[in-house]
């Protein structure tokens, strides 16, 4: 994968129907344990009665260009990759959770070691090849248990030339994924639209997930 | 004599029981990982982090008090000088124990020194702690050296230890004494900025820089940390001094106790004033998360810890005692007040860590809820008992009291 790409995601809130398919697909793709969802869909009511509407805001990790989590990690276990994605090195992370506390988007979760083995036969037998690394079985005392986890734009899928799982399954076709370095890409064009905005802009984190009003 | 040995036995007995319970809890913790806690991804820090900053604060406070003696020559407090240093060291040891068991991957604790992210306050703190503990040990050593040399002449295991620690030096001349004093002054002077800006101000900064948490994210936060450290350190040393004097049947220096109480009152008032600004300026911004956090502190499920522990027990009752015409003359009442202040500051630490992590960072994300589990409580108790145990052993083994005082007493 050439590193001149700078991955970004655009989410059109007008097209999102709040079905949570992205959340489910993400859990299936990354085989995240109970209590961990890299992606959630936040439901928010806007306006004052009787003029109320409901909006749904899907929230993956924003892969911030000025990531608060990277700033605070004492051991550089979480870091910014060339391609714009913020990664976690599971073999270095000491599990201090300073990054969870510091992320303004609540995008990080701690892996307490729970599993779905009762609900799902063989859940512990394989793990998702996050960051392109095959970690074998999910076992007590083995990373990523005891580490912090989060969305990484399905980096392992990007390596195979596929889109992130949430983008692929989105029922409303609300998610766009692409290269922000390429001015001709769909995401670049959408990001320049007057409808574009980012969450918590005042935090100065410069998210790479851009929303359309 | 007899009753005092019985007392000692009972004391050790209690400590051993608590340490055993704590040991069980820590084994549970090691086997079960952080799943044995009530922490979640919404509220990822809890009791252990609160205890960690509590003990870092006690350490910084005690140390700063000791500098009044060794650097600023406020000799009226000389009797608690070494105690202050010893308490500062042991508090740091406990703080490190707490933060160690809090790590998701304890076995990688050394990564914190091996890898260094320059922009991480936590990374800087780890290094400050190491330097600071080294400084404290050196200072305690030089403050005791003369008495160690004297003790080395005796017999028994204490003397053997003293002989080992003095490396055979028998130099008791005025020149060597002066050199020790000079060293103390230098070490203390280096220690002051390290303790204020590095160790405790730094620990406050760790929270203050988290812009995702508006309640912490203020320039006043590190200052409040340092002032509340002075509050808790002074209170603890006062209590320890009185309790130890009583147990050992020595006379309590009432004037010093009263003077310490005065100092404590001053610190308490400054702390209260700063807290007021912190809440007032924070609330005035009408920012959603900030308001929600303040509301959680004032009216949340654990608001009792704010109103009753932090304010009533930790501030109102002690101030009442310190100003009451009769009570302020009673050493016992003052000691009680000091103990309450220490407990109050523990409440302060919990109310710093937890409420800000209950409120979600984005509206619509789940709210947190946190109350420590039995394992968290017992392990904390065990670690505190371990600290008291180390303290008891240390005052037995080392000349923590100045020799003159020992001669006076008994
Ligand atoms: S959203 Fe949070 S976890 Fe993701 S890069 Fe930004 S600060 Fe880090
Ligand atoms: S939990 Fe891991 S990734 Fe997060 S700040 Fe600590 S060491 Fe870094």
- What count of structural domains of chain B? 2
Main sheet: strands, sense, barrel of chain A: 4 strands, mixed
Overall radius of gyration of chain A: 17 Å
Largest interface (CB < 8 Å)? A-B, 48 and 41 residues
Family (chain B): Belongs to the NrfD family.
Transmembrane segments (chain B): 7-27, 47-72, 84-101, 121-142, 186-208, 220-243, 263-286, 306-323, 335-358, 378-398
Membrane topology (chain B): Multi-pass membrane protein
Keywords (chain B): Cell membrane, Membrane, Transmembrane, Transmembrane helix
What features would you describe in this structure?
The complex is a heterodimer of chains A (213) and B (410). In chain A, 17% of the residues lie in helices and 19% in strands. Chain A has helices spanning 21-30, 68-72, 98-102, 155-159, 165-169, 186-191, and strands at 7-12, 40-46, 53-59, 78-80, 86-88, 109-110, 148-149, 175-179, 196-197, 209-212. The longest helix of chain A is centred in the first third of the chain and has 10 residues, at 21-30. The mean pLDDT of chain A is 94. The longest helix of chain B has 35 residues, at 174-208. With 410 residues, chain B is mainly α. Chain B has 14 helices and no strands. In chain B, 74% of the residues lie in helices and 0% in strands. Chain B has 2 domains: 10-33 and 44-209 and 372-401, no CATH class; 224-347. Mean pLDDT of chain B is 92; it is low at 403-410. Residues 72-73, 75, 77-78, 88, 93-99, 148 of chain A line the site of one iron/sulfur cluster (SF4).
Quick description:
Chain B: It is a multi-pass membrane protein. Chain A has 213 residues and is α+β, with helices and mostly antiparallel strands. Chain A has helices at residues 21-30, 68-72, 98-102, 155-159, 165-169, 186-191; strands at 7-12, 40-46, 53-59, 78-80, 86-88, 109-110, 148-149, 175-179, 196-197, 209-212.
């Amino acid at each position: 994968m050439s590193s001149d790409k700078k991955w970004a995601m655009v989410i059109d809130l007008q097209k999102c129907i709040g079905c949570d398919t992205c959340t489910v697909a993400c859990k299936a793709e990354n085989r995240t344990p109970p209590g961990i969802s890299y992606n959630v869909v936040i439901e928010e009511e806007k306006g004052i009665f009787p003029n109320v509407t409901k909006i749904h805001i899907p929230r993956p990790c924003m892969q911030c260009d000025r990531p608060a989590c990277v700033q605070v990690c004492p051991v550089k276990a979480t870091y910014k990759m060339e391609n714009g994605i913020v990664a976690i090195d599971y073999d270095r992370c000491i599990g201090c959770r300073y990054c969870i506390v510091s992320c303004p988007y609540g995008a990080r979760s701690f892996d307490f070691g729970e599993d779905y083995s009762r609900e799902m036969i063989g859940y512990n037998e394989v793990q998702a090849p996050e960051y392109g690394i095959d970690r074998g079985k999910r076992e007590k005392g083995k990373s990523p248990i005891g580490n912090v986890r989060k969305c990484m734009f399905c980096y392992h899928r990007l390596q195979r030339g596929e889109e992130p799982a949430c983008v692929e399954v989105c029922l409303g076709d609300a998610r766009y994924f692409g290269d922000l370095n390429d001015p001709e890409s769909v995401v670049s064009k959408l990001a320049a639209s007057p409808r574009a905005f980012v969450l918590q802009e005042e935090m100065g984190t410069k998210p790479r997930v851009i929303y359309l009003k | 004599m007899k009753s005092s040995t019985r007392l000692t036995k009972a004391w050790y007995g209690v400590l051993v029981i608590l340490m055993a319970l704590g040991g069980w809890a820590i084994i549970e913790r090691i086997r079960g990982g952080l799943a044995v806690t009530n922490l979640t991804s919404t509220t990822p820090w809890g009791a252990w982090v609160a205890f960690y900053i509590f003990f870092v604060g006690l350490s910084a406070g005690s140390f700063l008090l000791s500098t009044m003696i060794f650097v600023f020559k406020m000799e009226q407090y000389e009797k608690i000088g070494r105690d202050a240093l010893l308490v500062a060291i042991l508090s740091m040891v406990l703080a490190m124990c707490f933060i160690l068991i809090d790590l998701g991957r304890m076995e990688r604790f050394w990564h914190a020194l091996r890898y260094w992210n320059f922009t991480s306050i936590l990374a800087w703190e780890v290094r400050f702690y190491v330097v600071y503990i080294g400084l404290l040990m050196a200072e305690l050593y030089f403050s005791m050296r003369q008495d160690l040399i004297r003790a080395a002449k005796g017999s028994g295991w204490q003397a053997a230890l003293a002989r080992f620690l003095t490396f055979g030096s028998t130099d008791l001349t005025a020149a060597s004494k002066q050199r020790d004093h000079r060293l103390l002054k230098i070490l203390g002077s280096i220690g002051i900025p390290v303790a204020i800006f590095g160790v405790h101000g730094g620990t406050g900064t760790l929270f203050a820089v988290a812009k995702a948490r508006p309640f912490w994210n203020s320039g006043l936060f590190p200052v409040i940390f340092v002032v509340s450290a002075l509050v808790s350190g002074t209170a603890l040393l006062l209590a320890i001094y009185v309790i130890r004097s009583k147990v050992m049947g020595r006379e309590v220096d009432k004037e010093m106790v009263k003077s310490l109480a005065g100092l404590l009152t001053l610190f308490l008032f400054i702390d209260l004033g700063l807290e007021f600004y912190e809440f007032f300026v924070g609330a005035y911004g009408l920012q959603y998360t900030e308001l929600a956090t303040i509301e959680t502190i004032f009216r949340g499920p654990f608001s009792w810890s704010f109103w009753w522990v932090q304010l009533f027990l930790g501030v109102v009752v002690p101030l009442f005692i310190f100003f009451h015409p009769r009570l302020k003359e009673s050493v016992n009442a003052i000691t009680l007040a000091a103990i309450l202040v220490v407990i109050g500051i523990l409440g302060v630490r919990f109310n710093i860590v937890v409420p800000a992590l209950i409120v979600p960072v984005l509206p619509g994300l789940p709210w947190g809820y946190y109350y420590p589990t039995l394992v968290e409580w017992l392990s904390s108790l065990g670690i505190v008992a371990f600290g008291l145990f180390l303290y008891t052993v240390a005052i037995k083994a080392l000349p923590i009291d100045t020799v003159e005082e020992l001669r006076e007493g008994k």
